[in-house]
DNA sequence: TAGGCCATCTGGTCCT
DNA sequence: AGGACCAGATGGCCTA
């Protein structure tokens, strides 16, 4: 569970603070320890590889126009204020994204508390979980209600299967093995698993991106 | 110690 | 003009 330890604060109170919020992480970016890139651009406009040929760009002209009549210190302060404000928004945006990922984790088949899925695992698992559920629905007629359901085919069937569908996963995501017990009649084992050919894409909920999505 | 994961900063681009 | 979104860079933490 990702805790949102850094709440959005307006930039005004952060102007003099190197670390704009009280994140428990000990992370300190170099940019917060020295002057920002904006500051460096202001001090040395021709930094290597960047901002070359910008003098005639509308953005640059606009900035220069805005700077007219203002001291370098004021311009610097304005730039820093905007940067801090943008950083706060970006941080908040990423926190919202993480909250959405947490919500997604909660509706996925439960895992042991100490086995939190990584971001990429969560997305891949959700993708395959949705796919498996839709396949289960699609083939939900009595003829196909058996151990040969796609969900059972793509995942290891739970040996202790009951009448109601259930999912379970091992403790380690890295070596995860999620199982699905379809709501199949105990006696309907006649359908062979060969009757359905799963796409290789869906064989493993934690399939690596290199092999599955690229 | 290397590699994976993550949070954060940053500048660019697009949109309203 | 300002905000949202994005991707690259950076450095910390954790684990095998």
From TrEMBL:
Transmembrane segments: none
Gene Ontology biological process: axon development; forebrain development; positive regulation of transcription by RNA polymerase II; sensory organ development
GO cellular component, one term: nucleus
Biased composition (Polar residues): 16-36
Keywords tagged on the record: Developmental protein, Differentiation, DNA-binding, Neurogenesis, Nucleus, Transcription, Transcription regulation
Gene3D superfamilies, sorted: Helix-loop-helix DNA-binding domain (4.10.280.10)
Entries under PROSITE patterns matching the protein: BHLH
Pfam families membership: HLH
Every BHLH domain range: 81-133
Region (Disordered): 9-73, 172-194
An example molecular function term from Gene Ontology annotations: E-box binding
Quaternary structure annotation from Swiss-Prot or TrEMBL: Efficient DNA binding requires dimerization with another bHLH protein. Forms a heterodimer with the bHLH protein hes2, and weakly interacts with hey1/hrt1.
PANTHER family assigned to the protein according to its UniProt record, in alphabetical order: BASIC HELIX-LOOP-HELIX PROTEIN NEUROGENIN-RELATED, NEUROGENIN-2
Name this polypeptide is given: BHLH domain-containing protein
């Amino acid at each position: 569970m990702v805790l949102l330890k850094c709440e959005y604060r307006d930039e005004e109170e952060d102007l003099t603070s190197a670390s704009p919020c009280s994140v428990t992480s000990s992370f300190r970016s170099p940019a917060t320890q020295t002057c920002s890139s904006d500051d460096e651009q202001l001090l040395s406009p021709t930094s290597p590889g960047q901002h070359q040929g910008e003098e005639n760009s509308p953005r640059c002209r606009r900035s220069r126009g805005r700077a007219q009549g203002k001291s370098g210190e004021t311009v610097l302060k304005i730039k820093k204020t905007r940067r801090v404000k943008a950083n706060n928004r970006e941080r908040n945006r990423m926190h919202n994204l993480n909250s959405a990922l947490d919500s997604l984790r909660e509706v996925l088949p439960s895992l042991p508390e100490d086995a939190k899925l990584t971001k990429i695992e969560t997305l891949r698992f959700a993708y395959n979980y949705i796919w498996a559920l839709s396949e289960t629905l699609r083939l939900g007629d009595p003829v196909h209600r058996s151990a040969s359901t796609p969900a059972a085919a793509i995942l290891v069937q739970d040996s202790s299967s009951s009448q109601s569908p259930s999912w379970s996963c091992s403790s380690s995501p890295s070596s995860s093995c999620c199982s699905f017990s379809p709501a199949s009649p105990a006696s309907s084992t006649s359908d062979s698993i060969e009757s359905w050919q799963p796409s290789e894409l869906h064989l493993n909920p934690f399939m690596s991106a290199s092999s599955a999505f690229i």
